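Troubleshooting log. The previous structure file for this entry was overwritten by mistake, so regenerating from the original sequence record. Sequence copied from the archived sheet and checked twice against the printout by T.R.
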Amino acid sequence: DLRDQLLDMQVQQAAVEARLATRESDVTRRVHGVQIREDLVVSREEYVENRLQVTTHFYEYLRNGWAHYADGNIDRCVGCVNRAIELPGVEPALLVQGLMCMGEVLYKRRIDTYPLSSAQCFIRALEIDIDYAQAWYNLGNAMSREEERVVVGGVSYTTQQCYIKALELDPTYLEAWGNLGDTIVSGEETVEVGGVWYTMYECYTTALGIDPTISNVWYNLGNSMSREEEGVEVRGVSYTKQQCYVKAVELHPSDLQAWGNLGDTMVSNEERVKVGGVWYTKQECCDKGTPQTDIGKPTTNNKCCIIS
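Regenerated output below.
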């Protein structure tokens, strides 16, 4: 929703301003590579008026950009957001929000014609506000598609390290917990977050401990477990691989992959599994995990088959 997007950006802007204020020791700051000195402004009244005008124009451009995005006109969306970013005298907190907005559009629409990549947009945002958890999270997402390592503030980071930075700044960032788990190769590998070591399972269970209604985390937790494992504890309850997939499809009934994987956990078609109060055989789970247009057709790559 456009209104919600703009309100959220204004909230984030205020948070960025608060963080920057704690780090500014004098009246100088750097915007677009140009040193700005507020003490050189003719009058405070003029400064306040100029700032108000810039902020108004900034959000007008963003409002138009999101409207174009909703209409599917991505070129015009990028053009509007770019105008917001390039406004003369734009405040650092506004610039951060503009860069975040541009980075998300470039990432979601896989645009590579803009001078900056989505990862570079998030890096520029972090160079202004190094403590922005969402920027670290978005950078990790963008890197998985664009680069193996990036440099922020003179330090090199991997995708995994970006998610760790996000979580050290905001330990309740459940999406970052889920994505951090995805970066771990095996159940034995561990990563350190805030002085504590976590396995792949613990990353997923931590995310589900924050919010147990995220279907893809249940799906990924099921994928990370072997059929023989007794279970992994989430909020004091132990779940097997099969039960993780059950939770995933109960939360997202149209998840074909979760249905297919649920079918794979059953040994024969005589076995049944209960999902949302209904009992399903292995074949019924397989059918639920197959596009409707393909049910009944012979196939050589059906991941789910009946074992007699």
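Residues 182 and 194 are 19 Å apart (CA to CA). Archived copy saved in two places this time.
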